[in-house]
Amino acid sequence: MDFGLNLPSYGSGASPEAVVRVAEQAERIGLGAVWTFERLLRPVEPVSYGGFAPPAPLPEAYATVYDPLETLSFVAARTSRIRLGTSVIAAPLHPPVVLARRLATLDVLSGGRLVVGLGQGWMAHEFAVAGVPRERRGARFAEHLVAMRAVWGPDPVRFEGEFYEIPESQIGPKPVRPGGPALLAGAVARAAVERAARLGLGLNPVVMAWEQLEETVSVFRRAAERAGRDPESLPIVVRVNGSITAKPRAGRTPLTGSVEQVLDDLPRVRALGAAHVLWAMRTPPDEQLAVLEQLTARAPT
């Protein structure tokens, strides 16, 4: 298991200089990956976050979000080893051929370092501006994935589905790894977690409580087994929406608080078979790098 962090590619602190500096420092201190995410817009009106909570204003930082793939392409040219991840891109907002080609291009340009977190999307405003129906987005997501895998397969490519069609064509480039880059599902609802397992995706859950994370992983593995897949072959990348801090914190959520508190938490997340933990912190980038450097140096290998 190794560690990663979100790049400063959103909010008032986003800049090309900040993105490159954090990525280069992350690689220098031995982090496993740097991450971006997708947000097309920040509605002015309150929004039900994820579709589960009462309507509320979205974070002001969402008013400026760099495109995840352009950002990672920029970073790929300035780094050589660190993995480049998305957590997550809402796949149905993009035509499968367009997204598959963009991902394959970044994968080739980075030497196969791409890790792709995908979601089915949730915000009605984003579906509206993308011109895509929000209804049946789970089924659309599943077919989108099959279509992208077809694009990454041998030429000529041909696909006919309920939502998407690709005429017999040559489509390149192809990703570095046969079958495409590593794929993760950013899934919360039980049905989405089970769908991810059936599709042979890894899992990118957000940890809010230990019981929630453990139940999500258990549901995922049971669904993989029922689908005839080896659960151990499907990676789990845990996302932490919270900070590692200089001082201990009371009443904290898992994998937040001081370096010592996070070190105490790591055996529990290791027991779940997590391959990687990424933090989306709310502290300045230099502080994030400092605590992650300490964590990387002190965590058992």
TrEMBL record:
Q: Extract the SUPFAM superfamilies matched here.
A: Bacterial luciferase-like
Is Oxidoreductase included in the keywords of this UniProt record? Answer: yes
Alphabetical list of Pfam families matching this protein: Bac_luciferase
Asked whether the keyword Ribosomal protein is assigned, the reply is no
Q: Which UniProt keywords apply?
A: Flavoprotein, FMN, Monooxygenase, Oxidoreductase
> What InterPro entries has UniProt attached to this entry?
Lucif-like_OxRdtase_Rv2161c, Luciferase-like_dom, Luciferase-like_sf, SsuD_RutA_monooxygenase
Q: Which stretches make up the Luciferase-like domain?
A: 9-247
Q: Which domain of life, per UniProt? A: Bacteria
Q: What protein does this entry describe? A: LLM class F420-dependent oxidoreductase
Its source organism is: Actinoallomurus liliacearum
